[in-house]
Structure formats: C-alpha cells, structure tokens
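Progress report, Aim 2. The chain analyzed during this reporting quarter is listed below.
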Amino acid sequence: MKKIIPKMLLILLTTKIYAQHKMKEKVEYYDEYNKEYYTKYRSNEKNELVGVTSNTFIINQDPQNFYIGIYNENKPYKGYFIDEKILNEIPIIRYYEKGILMKEYSYYFLEGEDQYKPPFKYNLETIYENGKIKSGYEYLPEKKENGATTIGICRYDNFKITEFYVDAFAENYFNRFFFKNEQGKLTVRHAINNYLVIEKKEKMLWVDFYESDKKMATSKQIYERIAPETPNSITEYYQENGNIKAFHFKKNNSEQKEEFHSEDDILVKLFSIFPAEYNNDTTHLLIDIVNSYKSDKSKIEDLFPFNSYPFTYNEEQVLSRVFYDNMGKIKEGGFLTKKDNETYQLDFYYKGKITNTKTFKNLKDIKQEVDKLYSKALNP
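Predicted structure tokens for the chain:
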C-alpha cells in the first residue's frame, strides 16, 4: 500500500501545571523539530479532560487558525475533536454541540494531492440528524485478509445510501469497486472503463455490460425450472440445512445475446449471475450489498443477496448432478435417493447404465465420491 501520509509524530514536550486552578496542560507537537503545529490538551485535578486546541488541520467548510473542543465529564461536549483514524492514517474530526455529534470531517485518501504535512485540509463533511447520517460519508470497519486491507465507504444523501466504495490495499496493489444507485439503476464499476448497469424490470434484475461506454452484452435468461425427468434436462442435488434437495432445470436454446471477451474477470463473473429474481428495487439492493459487506462476506460476488435465476442455492452446496437424454432417461451422473433418516443412496450412471452404487451417512462424502467415480469413468 502506498503511504498516504506519514504517521503523526506526537511528542509530549511540556506539561504545565496551573496551581491556582489545579489545571494541567499537555502539548503534543506534530514535528519534533518544528513546533509550529500542535495539539494542546487541558485537564483538571481529577485528570479529566476539559479542553483541546489544535492547529494541525483546516476544515474547508469552517476555516480557522485553530480549533477548540470543550469536554464535559471527560466527554466531548462542544467544538472540534480529533478522533479515530481511517486506515490507521487519517484522523476523523468530529464536531459536537451540547454533547451531541453534529458533523464529521475527513478527506478522501485517493483524490487530490497527497498531504504529507500539516495543516491537513479536510473537505468531506458528514451531517448527523437525530443520531443518523443525513448526508456525507460512513467509514466501515477495516477488514484484513490474505495480506490485504479492505475498507468500505458509504455515501449518504437525505438519509439514504446512494454510493458505496470497496477499496482494497496491499503492498504495490490497489483495487476498487464502486456502486452507485441513481434513477432506478445500480452501476457497478471496477476498472476505469468497465462497468455494469443493473435495472429492475417486473420481478427480475437485468444487467448490461459496458466497456468504454459501449454496451458489450445484455443478460438473458439461460435456464428455466422444469419438471423432473424432462428430456435434455439436468437435476442438481444440493444440501440445505443438513438435508438433500433436488432442483430440475434445462438450458434454453437462446443463450447470452452475443459472445464478448473482457479481461475484467470479476465483472464478468458478476454479469453471469444475472438475470436474478429480487423482490425489492435497486435502492434496497445497495442496502443489502452494504449489509453483506458488514457481515463476514468479503468477496464482491458474495455481496449480492441472491443466486443466478432460477437457482436458489450456490455452487458450493451442490453434491451431484444427473443429465437426462432426449428420451428423459438418465444419461450420466450421480442419482441420489433417501433410504432412511440417516442414509442416502448414490447410483452413479455413465453412458446410460449404473456403474456403481453406494450408501452414505455423511453428506460431505457424496461430492468427493461422485468426483472420484467421474474420474474413474473418464480414465478407465
């Protein structure tokens, strides 16, 4: 990750004691050799903070030579306070009135010139009303996985999330996804020139894939749900809540509108899950995506709260598949039946004949066995 700003060098230079009022003052200088920029903390005889003054930042919406914050019972009460840091680098400035958080200020670390020394210019304002964000930005807790740090940033307008950024950092690496909901459409951007446009039509979400503002493809319904043992159909057996369920479908003759090629593998993967059945509009879809990010989900494709239509499950749940011929008879695959409350029977077909039959009590063993039988059939 490229260093945004150097970590603040906070040096305790002096502690003054005012005997008359039993007040103490602690001064933290930004630079050991240049004492022009500082933050002063004042505390009472109980070591409770009563005030803070700083000139290490400038707020574009309220420029001052220095900023003052007043504490009450050791808590922010009125004025400006330096608070938690974004990516352990950029402090958030919070403004209080009568102990109520009214505003927050920050600056976006990827836009504009890098800021290496004070006073740091803050130009992003977040406004709170009744304890909720009315407009501005919300910085979600950072996630760390496989050597990368990821941060999610929500942008609000009139109490609604209208944009969502997911930025990932690692050494010599940066990646960004950007979601924007506008005029009933959700745009998903990855690389600068590549993006998806998702739109709700009736009960379905449809998507267009763009490169350099040129529409490359439109999602089409490839699969449809049908009755079991339909000619030229497929049955997938999947596990759900400890049980095996069967899903029957077939592939339509009309596939995606046209073939297209893109180096943006992640957007292509997202494109492939559409069309999708979804009961709400794109405003709620963006909220669901943010809520998924707030949970333990980290992959972009897992943030969407649905599977590709008409499927109600994901690939990881699939145990086996059965393929039917044009007469509606099993051509190949692992046919599963429940024998009793604890046992399932697997009949493995190849070239229209059963080549192996086994019983299982552990569902996890079924998928592994099907893979082994396929490998054996293809490599006798």
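Residues 364-378 form the longest helix (15 residues). Residues 11-131 form one domain. These observations will guide the mutagenesis work planned for the next reporting period.
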